[in-house]
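hiii so my PI (J.) wants the whole complex modelled not just the main chain, which honestly fair. so below is everything: three entries, each one labled with what it is. i double checked the lines twice but i was tired so who knows lol
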Amino acid sequence: MTTDTGSTTDGVKDMWRHVRFLFLAFLVLWVVFTVFPLYFMVITAFKTAAETNLTVPTFWPQDWRPGNFAGVFAEKTNFNALLDSFIIATANTALSLFLGSLAGYAFARFPRQAGGENLAFWILSNRMFPPVAILVPMFFLFDNTPWGTDSHLSLIFLYLVFNLPLATWLMMVFFRDAPLEIEEAAYLDGWRPLRAFVKVTLPLVLPGMVSVAMLCWIFAWNEYLFANLFVGSAVKTYTIVIPTFTHGSQTLWNLQMAFSLIAMIPPVTLFILLRRYMVRGLSLGVVKG
Amino acid sequence: MANVSLQKVNKIYGSGPGSVHAVQDLDLDIADGEFVALLGPSGCGKTSTLRMIVGLETITSGHIFFDERDMSRLEPQERNVAMAFETYALYPNFTVEENLAFPLEVRGVDSDVRRKKTEEIAEILQITDILNAFPPELSGGQQQRISLGRALIRDPSVFILDEVMSHLDAHLKFRMLFDLKRLHRELKRTMVYVTHDQVEALALADRVAVMSNAKMQQVGDRNTLYNRPANVFVADFIGEPPTNFFTACVATEDNETRLLVDDSDLVLVPDQSTAGKLRQSGHDKVTAGIRPQNLGLSETPYSLKAEIDINEYLGERSMLTVQNGAATFQSLAPPDMRAGPGEAIQLYYEPSSVMVFDFETEKLIA
Amino acid sequence: MARLEVQGLCKGWDFPVIDDLSFSVEEGEFFVILGASGIGKTTLLRLISGLETPDAGRVIVGGSDQTRLPPYQRRIAMTFESYALYPHLSVYENIASPLRARKVAADDRERRVREVAKLLKIDHLLDRRPGEVSGGQKQRTALGRTLVADPEVFLLDEPISHLDAKIRHELRTQFHTLEDLRKVATVYVTHDYAEALSLGDRIGVMGSGGRLEQVGSPRDLFERPVNLTVAEHLGQPTINVISARIQSENSQTFLTAESGELKFSLPDEAKAMLQGQAKDRVTIGLRPQFIRPLRETDTGLEVVTAEVDVYEPLGANGIMIAHSGGVRLIALTDPEMHYDAGEKVTLGVDISRFHYFDSESGYRLNGAN
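here's the output for the full assembly
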């Protein structure tokens, strides 16, 4: 140890202090940047229609109008739109998970028979081209089905195009991480393959599955582009209802924001409820001592 | 190079009722150039101790000195301690040579010096022939050596090895033991070896520090730990096969003290000095221990009668599991011992090999 | 209850992992397969259990060919090296799994799980998850899961090699005393020769070609190894191997080490045997416990002077590595002794304990296989 080490380390410490400060400043900016839109959404929902249209926006409502939240349901079909979105998102998620788990399992356990890594990647690559490119072909395709475009079924199946590749790919990764030996132990215990899958393998990937379910559900819940074109009279999703809150040429920002906030409740609740499972998955512990 | 001194070191994780006292009032002095093993079962606090020496963990109270310098509050990089881990943590896309030189490269050492140092270390570790290979091509033993080399190359004042052999299989382990020993002899570096394996610890270290339940139990060389263990824990933990323990009553008659083992007709005779201590202290209940190695077939005036339960042939020797009443114990016999289950046998011992412990405190009476 | 028969099992064509391997295990026999790690022992068990299909050969249990049966239709229980416990189920449910699979009635199931748990001393842990118990307890749980199944064949894959010495010791004793294990055909795989010697009624030593080098009783294997591979695999420290030349001098015959001046006289019975084979070169194997520092009371030992390279007290023995006339020798000493590197020592060698191997093939010369 030489004596000048002290001063060098002080210099290093000083530098680190600066870096740490810069980093903190950046974080603060980032938080403002992300939280502000949400904040503005919340206060707008409580404003009067007049206040939303001021040239100089207010950052605190002059006049609190909680009645906006009831107001959005003045039209009964608006509540039905939430219901329609819920049915479509849930049914699509269930279907994505079911098919995605089976396909993912096949890719993970029998890669050669299932078509190999290339096929698995090709399936995922379906997510890569812009959805708008298939908008029109899809419309004509679904228009020729018995249930037409303006139905729950059309969107439930259409969203599979986006959710199924994701579910398949992610489930494949989760199944690959689930130790094969545990499944084999189940065979030796006398369980038939399908029972072993349900009893042993599925619980192991459950936390992953919950995450996949959330991703799928939130995508289907929030989708606007296809819903706007496909449905609209017999079935309405909430995403296509929001822009309809207008009064003549006037956009009713307060109602749009109030309705958006209400539409946020299901995904947020879902996340809070299911978060426990996702965390528990991490604490199941290792297999090996 | 440095001597290391731990003084009343404590580590408490958390606070309040949920806190864990992981290391309790630990004192340990390691001389310059000494090889000390820190031995204990998992959860005994040895890893916390080691992390405090390295500086990866703060010290709740107490001090750690390297030479005369207080290191307690310094960052790891200011302590000049090197550490090799159980997992090799080598960079798979670097050659062996690049892996070895990496710590020097990070510190901006000249490439000439780097090359020289790498060659030196490779020489000592006997890996000169694989300097251009990539880690994944190598065996576990070779990878472990490279990982040692990488820790050694920057001339640390203290060198810490954390369970470096628990991955290796028996034959490799055996060679590695000799390699490490030679390494220490050539480098004359202060080394701390952390392990849960008593065979490794006893074979390698000049002195072994045995820890259990957050406390230091005993520090000593092989013979001390083996023949004069400080308490029941050390007697049980050190030695393979494990020591036989008996709960016994002390009986003194005509100035002769004998130990009558509970629930059996076994009688153990301790040596003169222990017998004297027992009479002096007036113990009436004790825990007696005797190692299976010290119970044999070559005759002495002292013996235990028992019936054979299991006779395990182990090649170089046989291990007998025998019983008398409720007492079951083990003895090592020559491999040509053929007696089978149910047969009666007489096992002989020397009084000096009988270890006697206080029944309550479990401390050695000697 | 049945006999296990493995006939001409093959797996892997270009680089065979298992090559034309045959053996049989009687009902009630404890058969140990001993081999280095990565040599194909686990593959062998997987072939027997049906987790993998052999390329050729048959697996016969109790006279019926089960080679093509899926694992869940065989009455074969197996423990995995990784234990393979179900992490999301309690210890109780882990053990109960084979009974649930076979739809055993609830009260019967309950009774059997508790019985097995008690036997293995894990009855206080039944409500815990595998993640919450120690390594030894995990192994007991895995063992319980196989015991409760009441199978015809037990396969145990390195069940205790990952545990601490003390627990290893305890479980080894348990394997000796578990009645259930001693009733059926058991195949036990390990890389630890002491475990194999201790537990096996018979042992098969597996070599690198996916074949069994030698099958025999523990004493057979240790005292009459069929070749160098077997001799080197059993014993710690490893057996001393010396290549030597058979030379005659003044009507006396000697064994002279190839690499130097080390010279032993040749015991008579060995002389007769070697002359019968018409060999002039031979490889000698000598276990370290038959070389030791000479004591005054020793008789009948050949005396060799050597220089100590390393000395290490290890457990119950001290191990000395020394060289004499260019030959490296490993000797065992009393653990209380001390020797320094470079020290000159006089060693006693028990030449009656020599094993003789063919210098080319490595196969045993004295006596039939």
